[in-house]
Design a protein that fits this description.
alpha/beta, Rossmann fold, 4-stranded parallel β-sheet, 30% helix, globular, disordered C terminus
Length: 130
């Protein structure tokens, strides 16, 4: 499957490029790897879709995942997440391990919520005083 890997340079826990590249290689994940600034992520994801990619891997935090998910909305291109942000709320909610552990070929499906063609994900927190 033609794959593009988009890594947000500003991701809170991106760390060393060599570690990410080694993890991708050891997992057998091959694709066109791009190291980008956050503002470039959405357009790169759109270009991957236009180029016929079947999979886009988003490496970053919640903003990166949101940008890529929005670009993939309404397409048949799959999204994979590398939780490389600071808090990674979305990845945690999906129980994606926070350590950089990559396993090629294993996908779990979930429906992503969209509102007016924009990916939306809501975090709600509360404090109940007792």
């Amino acid at each position: 499957m033609k794959t593009t890997i988009l890594i947000n340079l500003g991701g809170g826990s991106v760390g060393e490029r060599s570690a990410i590249e080694a993890a991708l290689e050891s997992a057998g994940i091959a694709g066109e790897l791009h190291w980008l600034h956050g503002r470039e992520i959405r357009e790169a994801a759109k270009a991957a879709v236009a180029g016929g990619d079947g999979l886009v891997i988003a490496g970053g935090g919640d903003g990166t995942v949101s940008s890529v998910a929005g670009a993939l909305a309404g397409t048949r291109t799959k999204l994979a997440i590398l939780p490389l942000g600071t808090l990674n709320h979305f990845a945690r909610d999906l129980r994606i391990p926070q350590k950089l552990m990559l396993q090629g070929g294993n996908f779990n499906s979930c429906r992503l919520p969209f509102l007016r063609r924009h990916f939306c994900w809501v975090v709600m927190a509360g404090n109940q005083a007792g």
